[in-house]
Structure formats: structure tokens, C-alpha cells
Amino acid sequence: MDWGNGYCFFLTLPNLTISFLIIAFTVITIRIVYVIHRSSRPLYTSPPQSLSTLIILGSGGHTAEMINLLSVLQKDKFTPRVYIAAWTDNMSLQKARVLEESLVDQTGAQKVKVPTQFMQIYRSREVGQSYLTSVGTTLLAMAHATWLMIKIRPQVILCNGPGTCIPLCVAAFLFKVVGIRWSSIFYVESIARVRRLSLSGLLLYKLGISDQFYVQWPQLQKKYPRAHYVGCLM
Amino acid sequence: MEETDESGYPKRTVFVTVGTTCFDALVRAVDTKEVKEELSRRGYTHLLIQMGRGSYIPTKSIGDGSLAVDYFTFSSSIAEYLKSASLVISHAGSGSIFETLRLGKPLIVVVNEDLMDNHQSELAEELAERKHLFCARPQTLHQTIAGMDLESLIPYPPGDARPVAKLINRFLGFPED
């Protein structure tokens, strides 16, 4: 009998570990599926007062499109606001500052309760960087994005295509899975993408990370049916 | 009112812009005899090239009956140059394209075929199909200029961010307006 018990004990130890792993894996999978499913539908039953908003800026045309979108959003609803651009990109934050200053002029500075913040993030890959070194820089960018996301914990994320939005959106998605913060992620594909999505867009679409995915050309909507066609922003 | 040069002739400027890119193939193409002759033939008097980070230096010319050519590398604002131009020849960046279209200037977009991920041609080709601009390659630029009918261009309707704002508001439960 003793021999039998001992034998069983040695068998059940790895069995327990395996069972635990299977259960953990199942729970995480179910949670991820739930988060993706829950993300695609409205979150609030009664209209919220205001939502903290993270705006991810990219160079050139991306920023111009984002500024166009921001100019029609009700700023008192999307507040406080945080802008993030790549470390190497000073132009975009400058444009955001100009926009924010024009808002202060309109509403009067005393109405701004929490000041708008401007931040910069390491880029996962500079143009022309080798793929070998970009493994390291991607990890660095991911760590930096997670750190920034811990600090910001936005309720709304607006992004439109620069590569910098990937580590930030992935971090935000992980926070949703873990239950730290639920962010609604809105992605607007750039107007420059007529027939194919950008790599950032494709990743967010395929992985189901974005809550709402918008495209500016009808051809793209046909190809990616979960996307919403919104016409040209520019 | 049309601008005039020193001698009182109407000034019709072609403004070439490569933005912040390096696009020697375009600068070289507008500097060719065929393109300059074609522009002259179509009544343009001045050619102004914003050459960006490129290394090819076009030949300056004061004109004297033929096309006057001048160039510079960068300017903090190209808006003034776009405004005073009669024709714009641009790289395919969306910033330059929409800035020019908003001003209602005739536009030829030249696609840079040397770019690795050449998604930029998508936008230029789509807008050309919708007759808002002409789309060319560096080596076909002179044919495009020779064959273009400026009357056939359709003004670009300004974009509207309200539909996407409406969807975002609806999703978040904010009142839509």
C-alpha cells in the first residue's frame, strides 16, 4: 500500500503542475477572448462626464490628420489630455502645443483643471536601422511604453498609424487583460492608405486590439469588414 | 490678379517640392531640357525648386526668353510658394498633396520609385483616378506635362472629421453633435 501511495505521489506532482498550467492558460485565454469581445461594444451605459485621453502623434501627415480630428472633438469631454510623440520627432508635439494653446485662448486658462501633458517615447525602430539591433530597441520601446502607460492609464486612446502606437496599444491591451485599466482604443488608418493597411493598422486589426477601427477609403472597408468607413479627414 | 515679373510680363511659376525627403530623381527630371521646354511651351515663365535633402543641384537660369530656374533646400513654410504658384509638382507625401489641393492649385504628383515601402503611390493614384491631380513618374513627367488638360481637374472637396468624431462619441456614450 505504502509503495502504491508513494508511486501516486510522484505521479501527481507533475500532474498538478500541468493541471495548474492548463487552468492558468485557459483562464488567460478566456480573459483575452472576453476583452476582445467586450472591446468591440460600447462601455458606458450612462454618458460619462469626461474621459482621460491619450493622443499618439506621428510625423508629417499623421499629425495633420490627428489635429483635424481633435479640432472637431468636444475637448471638455476628452480631458485631461496627454500627447505622445517619438523621441526623435519634435515637430508633432509643437503642433499639438499650438492647438492646445489656441484652446486655452478660447476657453480661458482658469477652466483647465488638469494641464495637458506632452511626452516622448523611444522608437522601436528608426528608419534604416538593422533588424538585429531593432530587437533590443523594440524591447526597450516596449518597456518604456509600459512605464508610460502605468503613469497615464488613459480611458481613451486615439491613434492613427505611426509605429510608436504599437507598443503603447499593446501595453494598454495587456492592462485590460490584467484588469489594471480599461482603455477604449480608437484607430484611424491614415488617408495615405487606400488599398492596403499599414503594418500598425494590420496588427491592431488582426489582433483585435483596437475597439474601433476606422478607414478613410471605401476599398479598405470592403477588404477589412470590421473597419468603419468614415470618409476623408483631410 | 496675376503676378508680373520686372519687365511687366505675367509671371507663371511652377513650384517643385520634395518636402523633407531626398528625391534627386524628381529634381533631375524637372531640370531636363524636355521638361523645361515643355513648361515654357505651356506658358510657364519661372521654375522654383525646393530640393530638400537631395544632392543633385539644378542649373540656375535667369530666363531671358526661356524658363527662369531657381532653387532652395528648405523653407519653414512652403505655403507662400504654393500660393504664388500656377502649377505645383510635388513628391507623393500626403502633407504636400492636401496643402496644394486645398489651395486649388493644379498639381502633378511624382511618385518616388526608389522608396522601399512605396505605399505613397496608392494615394496619388487614387486622387488621380478621381481627377483631383495628375500622377507621374520621374521618367514620364515630360509626357504628363505635355498631355495634361488643366480644365479636366475636379476641385478637391475639403475633408471632414465629423463622421469619425460622431462614431467615437456614440461609442463612448457622449452626445453626438
Automatic annotation (TrEMBL), chain A:
GO CC, alphabetical: UDP-N-acetylglucosamine transferase complex
A molecular-function term among this protein's GO annotations: transferase activity
Biological process (GO), any one: dolichol-linked oligosaccharide biosynthetic process
InterPro entries in the cross-refs: Oligosacch_biosynth_Alg14
Record carries keyword Transmembrane helix: yes
Assigned keywords, A-Z: Endoplasmic reticulum, Membrane, Transferase, Transmembrane, Transmembrane helix
Location in the cell: Endoplasmic reticulum membrane
Pfam family membership, one: Alg14
UniProt membrane topology term: Single-pass membrane protein
Transmembrane segments: 16-36, 131-150, 170-188
Annotated family: Belongs to the ALG14 family.
Name of this chain's protein: UDP-N-acetylglucosamine transferase subunit ALG14
Gene: LOC104606432
TrEMBL record, chain B:
Pfam families on file: Glyco_tran_28_C
A GO term, aspect molecular function: hexosyltransferase activity
InterPro entries (UniProt xref): Glyco_trans_28_C, UDP-GlcNAc_transferase
Glycosyl transferase family 28 C-terminal domain ranges (all copies): 13-163
Superkingdom of origin organism: Eukaryota
Listed name of the protein: Glycosyl transferase family 28 C-terminal domain-containing protein
